[in-house]
Amino acid sequence: MSTPTTVVDHSALKVNQTGIVATVLVAFIGGVVFQPLLVLIPLLAIVLLLGTFAPQLALFKQIYFKVLKPRGIVQPRPVLDRPEPHNFAQGLGGVFLAIASLFLLPVPVIGLALSLLVAVLAFVNLAFGYCVGCQIFFQLERRGVLRARA
User: Fold this and answer.
1) What is the pLDDT of residue 147?
2) How many of the other CB atoms lie within 10 Å of CB of 10?
3) In sequence order, what are the beta bridge partners of 6?
4) pLDDT of 86 strictly over 50
5) Are 123 and 79 in contact (CB under 8 A)?
6) For 24-47, what is each residue's pLDDT tens digit?
7) Percentage of residues of the chain with pLDDT beyond 70
């Protein structure tokens, strides 16, 4: 089955991944010294989930489109691609961070481990171009759990 493709600016995705990694690392490392920084984890969960369902609210992508790209700080990298797998991956990261947020106070090691997992997977995509969330999307689509939009 052929699925529709469009042009996706992969620079926006890279900025998004960088924002995820940086935010989790600041929360994780900074939280050791100043525990209130851990609030960045639930805030990042909200940012990712909002951006998944309303792309105009995707904070890091908006920073790219409104600040970095217009000023030439980051060059566009348009690729013929499908946005759905990337949005799914972002949403999955948001869900994991939301779950991590629930554990931050009662069982911090679980909350921090889940947060670091999201950061590591975002880094793998950033550094090596392998998107685990996208692969999950493709597998669910192939099994008929998710349907491609026409």
Assistant:
1) 79
2) 15
3) 81
4) yes
5) no
6) 999 999 998 999 999 999 999 999
7) 96
